[in-house]
Specification:
With 350 residues, the chain is an alpha+beta fold. It folds into 3 domains: 101 residues, no CATH class; 78 residues, Alpha-Beta Plaits, CATH 3.30.70; 136 residues, Gamma-glutamyl cyclotransferase-like (Hypothetical upf0131 protein ytfp). The chain contains 10 helices and 11 strands. A 5-stranded antiparallel beta sheet has the order 5-9-6-10-11. A 4-stranded antiparallel beta sheet has the order 2-3-1-4. It has a two-stranded antiparallel sheet with strand order 7-8. Helix 2 packs across helix 3 and helix 5 runs antiparallel to helix 7.
Length: 350
Amino acid sequence: MDLLAACEDLAANVAAFDVTEDDLYVYISEDDLKMWQMLFGFSPGLAFNTIKAWRADFTRLAISEEAWLLVREAKMAEGYNKETYEFSLWRAQMILKDSRTSINKLEAKDEEAKYLLQLKTDPSSMIEYLDLMRCLPKKQTILTGLDDHGNKAEFCLLTGSQKVEFLQAMSKKRPFYKPTMIRTSVAAKDLSSTSLYPTLGISTTFPQFRPDNHHLECASTSDSTSLFRPAQNEYPVWYFFYGTLTDPSKLSRVIGLNKEHPVVYERAIIRRGRLCTLDGKYLSLVDAGEHSKVDGWAYQIKNQDEEDSLRVYETGVYEVVRCTIELANKPDAKVQGLTFRLVDGLFGPD
């Protein structure tokens, strides 16, 4: 399209609906609303808002009168007029464009990326919220926390492929919808059910730490699986915290606890680890010898939702590992728990 043609289309679009935004609703007739609902499956409210946005966009797709005359008879038989036909063409282009762009960008490594989609629960946008929920994966990972004002905030955690599928589905229901989505990374959690892997300060490749080692068997209880705890999906589970998450208000916000359910820590110690600083400002836990110990706090995480929120907060720079937690206020009390260890290879000279 040359510059002159583009200018002519712009002028035609302005002339078609030369109204202010405040007056735009006057020009949306009941017949128009019913037509858009029938053709595109919109609710009355969505039809109204889509027509309003479409007519206010003077750069919208437009076809010439000559082009419309060529298809007019066939399209009017299907229920279209020129405006809705133009919208259908634009909508098809956007869906195809978004699909191609997303798929091209989604390389194999991007499947490891995670995205946080904000779920808005404003009562005034409940229809939008329900449409959004219908487009999400059937098996959803919903994270709950508190915002700066203490209000509940919900997010859905999506993989790279789930993000593409969600955007494609939403583009059909709400072509003007712009989701609030943040790329993030999640602390890995892959606890073996047949070995000690991963455990703070222990290399499970060494003979003394293998499952069939006689020393470990003697130290175990009658239930051999007790060696390999906590299990991957075991809840509640004790976590050992150091650094920013030793602040109860911070932990409460991360896992979505309100004032009626305050965080109550247990003073604790873990061994075979030591603290270092990441980028000169973040306390991080790394492996160390058997005589090393770290002081901190322990808290029992109640369910997977709380744990998922923790893993998102810590990001992929860390990984969840097993550790033995010694509760300082309970002599000889030891529990098998978890903590966040800096991913191997990220720690340089302190």
